[in-house]
Amino acid sequence: QVQLVESGGGLVQTGGSLRLSCAASGRTFSIYAMGWFRQAPGKEREFVAAIKWSVKNTYYADSVKGRFTISRDAAKNTVYLQMNSLKSEDTAVYYCAAVYSRSWIIYSDSGEYVYWGPGTQVTVSS
């Protein structure tokens, strides 16, 4: 089995930065992609960013392009989300997700991902 654990969430002021981490344990080979999704109160879960593990291709939601950066450390089986210029609308629970052994996926589709972390709260105050 695969376990994902997020860390790095917290309270930050508008315009500030946070760096989220997500460490995968258990099965750590054949990762195809990892992604970040978020869910704000009363809203559906939405795609934030994803990375194709082998070649490090990255994908972003339009709302975070230019402000967020996804990266990964294969040796640590960890994916990161650097979040800069945070806005109040970025407030949400952020979830890490992973999918293994696939030839292709729709990176923004949460249904493509099999394993999920418990989430970490990010609150941006104005």
Helix content: under 10%
Structural class assignment: mainly beta
Unreliably modeled segments: none
Give the number of DSSP strands.
Answer: 11
Explain how this protein is built.
- This protein is mainly beta and 126 residues long.
- It is 0% helix and 53% strand.
- It has no helices and eleven strands.
- It has strands at 2-7, 10-13, 18-26, 31-39, 46-52, 58-60, 68-73, 78-83, 92-100, 115-116, 120-125.
- Strands 2, 4, 5, 6, 9, 10 and 11 form a seven-stranded mixed sheet that branches. A four-stranded antiparallel sheet has the order 1-3-8-7, with no helix packed on it.
- It is globular, with a radius of gyration of 14 Å.
- The relative contact order is 0.31.
- The mean pLDDT is 95.
Keywords:
about 55% strand; 4-stranded antiparallel β-sheet; about 130 residues
Can you give me a brief rundown of this structure?
The protein is an all-beta fold. It contains no helices and 11 strands.
Helix/strand layout:
Elements: E1 2-7, E2 10-13, E3 18-26, E4 31-39, E5 46-52, E6 58-60, E7 68-73, E8 78-83, E9 92-100, E10 115-116, E11 120-125
Parallel strand pairs: 2-11
Antiparallel strand pairs: 1-3, 3-8, 4-5, 4-9, 5-6, 7-8, 9-10, 9-11
